[in-house]
Design a protein that fits this description.
Organism: Helicobacter ailurogastricus
Mean pLDDT: 90
Strand content: under 5%
Number of helices: 10
Structural class: mainly alpha
Family: Belongs to the 4-toluene sulfonate uptake permease (TSUP) (TC 2.A.102) family.
Number of domains: 1
Keywords: Cell membrane, Membrane, Transmembrane, Transmembrane helix, Transport
Radius of gyration: 17 Å
Subcellular location: Cell membrane
Low-confidence stretches: none
Protein name: Probable membrane transporter protein
Largest sheet: none
Number of strands: 0
Amino acid sequence: MLLEWYVYVIVGLAAFCAGLVDSIAGGGGLITVPTLLALGIPPHLALATNKLQSSFGSFTAALNFCLKGMVSLKEVAFGVACVVVGASCGTSLILHLKADLLRLLIPLFLSIIFLYTLLSPKMGEGDRPAKLKTPLFYGLFGVALGFYDGFFGPGTGAFWTFALVALLGFNMRKATAHTKVFNFTSNVISLSVFLISGHVIWTVGLLMGGGQMLGAWVGSNLVVRKEVKFIRKVFLSVVGATILKLFWDFLH
């Protein structure tokens, strides 16, 4: 698919911004998917290409968090395995089931998370005692959120961050770091389906992948350096934007 030169400039900048935001609070797809569609790229190609480029961003953020010592791969190994199982199941069903019910339920669930976080200003400021055993948490949420990300996707990062803070007692900085590891895992599984289908625009996807990596590196370093209040504000902004986008899509 031949595209004008300026298209590559636009998608590169969009990918950088998306990578920066996504590494802090998720929601990068709110920037990249509309950009690809606005440039006249067909929806099936836009979604596939978006999954490719976002994988570069989630990998970069996850790698940086691991290098900074914020995530221990040994500790999250079981969670990653559960995400692989869930994402594999969700991705295998994506071509056979409709997501109409999810299009209504997900923004409602996200609205609850948004209000709870907004009304709990101290939430995620420091570590707290866990309410679930870690293996049980990953067994439940790894499979469930892996399945959701493979099948539908929007808001997965918000669900992970909220669950890690609320149930494992993580502070928001630590939860954000762990979220990117799980996001990358489910992204790779979902990407495999699009690669097999041959719907990826490689030139655009790889260029955007470069932008994603730069943005994700900057954003993940901000997570390390900034206070939890900064992460919380970005989190609320992204979740709010996601809710509005999903409700708009459902109504139209």
